[in-house]
């Protein structure tokens, strides 16, 4: 059975471009409840750990630099079938391929600076949520 929680970050580019409010509105309108949220900045080390799975990819250095370049909004979201439904709401990794009306189609500027993160499995949603939040910060 699909889980009911996923993890997201509004990435530094979308924060810099003033899209926090619009993206949170889009998330709420999509039926997701916020169960944890913080405004924070990742160190390069923390960003590197978060994206360790991509260590061998050519864009890893650029990704770590970007993700630690300014504040982010990190959040845990709740909804039935959360992981899959959130991936649908945000659209494809490359905004040029993201379906119309999705968060990435509206707010991403490139494949690297693609506005938001969304977990790709229930297992990773739990790992990523715990990476950012203590149990006492989840409601
Ligand atoms: P997603 O975030 O959609 O799950 P991936 O897990 O494949 O996508 O990649 C993680 C992140 O790495 C992407 O969200 C994006 O910021 C960055 N990224 C992925 N592919 C590229 C690429 N070809 N060039 C630059 N950055 C990329």
Mean pLDDT: 97
Count of separate DSSP helical elements: 7
| Main β-sheet, spatial strand arrangement | 2-3-1-4
Form type: globular
CATH class type: Alpha Beta
Descriptive report:
The two termini are 22 Å apart. This protein has helices spanning 12-16, 20-29, 44-50, 60-67, 82-90, 103-107, 122-132; strands at 5-10, 33-40, 72-78, 116-118. It is of the alpha+beta class and 139 residues long. α3 (44-50) packs across α4. 40% of the residues lie in helices and 17% in strands. It has a single domain, classed as Alpha-Beta Plaits (2-Layer Sandwich). Strands 2-3-1-4 form a four-stranded antiparallel beta sheet. It is globular and about 35 Å long.
Which key terms come to mind for this protein?
139 residues; alpha+beta; Alpha-Beta Plaits; 4-stranded antiparallel sheet; 7 helices; 40% helix; globular; binds adenosine-5'-diphosphate
């Amino acid at each position: 059975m699909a889980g009911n929680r996923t993890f997201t970050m509004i990435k530094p580019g979308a924060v810099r471009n003033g899209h926090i409010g619009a993206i949170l509105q889009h998330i709420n309108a999509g039926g997701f409840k916020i169960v944890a949220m913080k405004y924070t900045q990742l160190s390069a080390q923390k960003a590197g750990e978060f994206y360790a799975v991509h260590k061998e990819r050519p864009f890893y250095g650029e990704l770590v630099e970007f993700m630690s370049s300014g504040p982010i909004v990190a959040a845990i979201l709740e909804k039935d079938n959360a992981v899959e439904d959130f991936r649908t709401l945000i659209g494809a990794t490359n905004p040029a391929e993201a379906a119309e009306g999705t968060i990435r189609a509206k707010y991403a500027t490139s494949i690297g600076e693609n506005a938001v993160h969304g977990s790709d499995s229930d297992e990773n949603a739990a790992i990523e949520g715990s990476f950012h939040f203590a149990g006492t910060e989840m409601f």
